[in-house]
């Protein structure tokens, strides 16, 4: 039969990241700087094994782990989260509550489902996380891209676009070690954005999967910490600080929208109870802050080395960000260079870097000429090899 | 702030099953015959532990288990599934393919997302699985209930409703040990339904989470086995035959819609790789058919005992189904009895049974006067106690 698909998926296509992945198949020498995976060496494998085994020590915990779980998550993990988020992030749990999701990816669907009708809009950075673009496109909510300055969204452009798009329902923002740019918003800018959203009664989805990965500079308070209205929905994840494969994330939001947001998880169960128990057992048993420090050290070392390699191999007319944490460096080519041509030349030179048009809210009119380079997943050897190959291409295209 | 919710969640309310669950809190003598959980004693705990540990034996499998996985699932589990589905269900894998989902619940969202616009319709049994109703309501797709005969949907009503609802996009059906009724459709009826769908070019979502739980009678071929057009999307789950907490389900569909359906999983990752590896390791190591036989024996014993208890305690004016497998018996009260009153009297008599209005496509105009009794989750003692209490209520309301 001829399948008639819904409009929302008619134009569904492979993302740039998957295009690179498929191109690389069967090419053993190809270097992927394109995947946003956490570093293997950051997974505490032996301890995860131990915490996993602990589940099987009592019939009660076996039963809990192997049966359907609560739609809000286990109390043990939620309690750990509330304690940490209150202590380290300054979030008020009189007004707010937390529920577990199966990673921070699936949580992205909850905003369109809870607050948007089809044809509504959401405001995003002009180059933003592909998962948010996917969540918006499957919900048929339109992304409106806001110009980026070196310290985050341009405030004038944000206010102008909000005025021009009255069907805008929320702002999606990754204010700490953003994906793809690595940018961290200073406190004043976070507050100014909050005030603009207050003025136009807009919700804010503060996505913070990388927030614990700071390896230099000083912590900046999350937007949720100064949220007096309940307009900030804060999302986090254990994928980058424990193991991505556990698929555990969480949403922290005002009690006034908690029930509806959690309802919108619907049949999508939260994370498996086993994964939740592994993490809460870990927090019971080991020093979580020391664990985070160990991961930060790994990422700091890799980021420093990638910066060195970029500065050594990439054409000096290119600029790059200097992230204080997270997983990505954003390299921008000089004006006049065609990002698509550079992207294709990179593939031919056996290196995968993700072009800005893969992250663009408006890839047709604003494709950009930047590239996201990931330093968390590759080995040190591959970081150097990949930067060298990317550098060779930039020298071909830059004058 | 005052939250403005999307229309689709404005009227979101607790399901009857959760109403019962909340009513039971703090009442230790309350008997739940309302939960659709698999039997604890059916989980092969020691072997799951062993297969889980096996993952940690090699660095390669650790890495795979703890990293993000493929959006289609692991090749090992997909290969096992293809071999089994071809051998035992007669599904053709030249035309079809299979991808993994995080349980069969989240898979329900894929039909509305892939094939429906808002305000479209889907055809369902007049009393159907609550998860499907939830998936439809969050997608704002309207359920159209088809009258049930003792062997499944009434064919005349099905054809009349299809004609009357041109925006109908698919038929949702649980033809084997249906939830909530326990009905199994005979082969001729399955074929007649397929022909009607063919005539009106309608897709069929064949949900089969209970299909492996036959404890009496003979297997009936699944609808997918005689699907020549690719119009049947077949969904299955390991929740009832391994452990619900693993959250592993799958979709088997024509290659022509495979990509779009899998795309609609979007950020919702499939099941954790760990869960997938536990199951495929199990299938590598142990005799899967013997494992299924052991579960079937447990369910057969419990079902037989519940039937005995119903026949002993429930008023003889009530009728019940005689399921050949699955988890549920459907008890229907005589005409003139008010299901809501009986439901409330049951709560007061310390027994939770789910009223038909909780499963109704149209709860206002067609609430029914039946109850779903679950025998998989409760102990034998609770089965008897619960049926006795439910029976007492029926004697109060039936003449």
Automatic annotation (TrEMBL), chains A, B:
Gene Ontology molecular function: 2-aminoadipate transaminase activity; pyridoxal phosphate binding
Limits of the Aminotransferase class I/classII large domain: 29-390
GO terms for biological process, alphabetical: alpha-amino acid metabolic process
Assigned keywords, A-Z: Aminotransferase, Pyridoxal phosphate, Transferase
Cofactor dependency: pyridoxal 5'-phosphate
InterPro entries assigned: Aminotransferase_I/II_large (IPR004839), Class-I_PLP-dep_aminotransf (IPR050859), PyrdxlP-dep_Trfase (IPR015424), PyrdxlP-dep_Trfase_major (IPR015421), PyrdxlP-dep_Trfase_small (IPR015422)
Name listed for the protein in its UniProt record: 2-aminoadipate transaminase
Enzyme class (EC, first level): transferase
SUPFAM superfamilies: PLP-dependent transferases (SSF53383)
E.C. number(s) listed in UniProt: 2.6.1.39
């Amino acid at each position: 039969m001829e399948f008639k698909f819904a409009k929302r998926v008619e134009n569904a296509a492979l993302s740039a990241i998957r295009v690179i992945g498929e191109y690389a198949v069967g090419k053993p020498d190809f270097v992927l700087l394109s995947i946003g995976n956490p570093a293997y060496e950051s997974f505490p494998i032996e301890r995860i094994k131990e915490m996993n085994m602990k589940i099987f020590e009592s019939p009660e915990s076996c039963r809990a782990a192997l049966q359907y779980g609560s739609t809000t998550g286990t109390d043990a993990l939620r309690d750990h989260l509330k304690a940490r988020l209150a202590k380290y992030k300054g979030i008020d749990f009189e007004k707010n509550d937390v529920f577990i999701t199966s990673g921070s990816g699936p949580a992205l669907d909850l905003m369109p489902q809870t607050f948007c009708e089809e044809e509504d809009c959401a405001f995003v950075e002009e180059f933003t996380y592909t998962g948010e673009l996917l969540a918006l496109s499957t919900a048929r909510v339109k992304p409106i891209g806001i110009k980026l300055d070196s310290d985050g969204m341009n405030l004038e452009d944000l206010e102008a676009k909000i005025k021009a798009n009255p069907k805008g329902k929320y702002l999606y923002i990754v204010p700490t070690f953003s994906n793809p740019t690595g940018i961290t918003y200073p406190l004043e800018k976070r507050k100014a954005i909050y005030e603009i959203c207050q003025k136009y009664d807009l919700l804010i989805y503060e996505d913070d999967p990388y927030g614990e990965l700071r390896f230099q500079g000083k912590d900046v308070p999350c937007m949720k910490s100064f949220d007096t209205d309940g307009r900030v929905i804060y999302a986090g994840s254990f994928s980058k600080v424990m193991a991505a494969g556990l698929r555990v994330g969480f949403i922290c939001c005002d009690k006034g929208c908690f029930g509806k947001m959690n309802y919108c998880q619907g049949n999508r169960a939260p994370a498996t109870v086993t994964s939740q128990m592994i993490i809460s057992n870990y927090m019971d048993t080991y020093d979580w802050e020391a664990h985070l420090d160990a991961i930060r050290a790994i990422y700091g070392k890799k980021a420093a080395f990638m910066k060195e390699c970029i500065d050594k191999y990439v054409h000096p007319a290119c600029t790059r960000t200097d992230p204080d944490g997270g997983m990505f460096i954003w390299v921008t080519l000089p004006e006049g260079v065609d990002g698509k041509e550079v992207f294709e030349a990179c593939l031919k030179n056996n290196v995968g870097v993700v072009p800005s048009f893969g992250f663009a809210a408006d890839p047709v009119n604003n494709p950009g000429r930047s590239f996201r380079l990931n330093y968390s997943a590759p080995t040190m050897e591959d970081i150097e090899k990949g930067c060298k190959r990317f550098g060779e291409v930039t020298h071909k295209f830059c004058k």
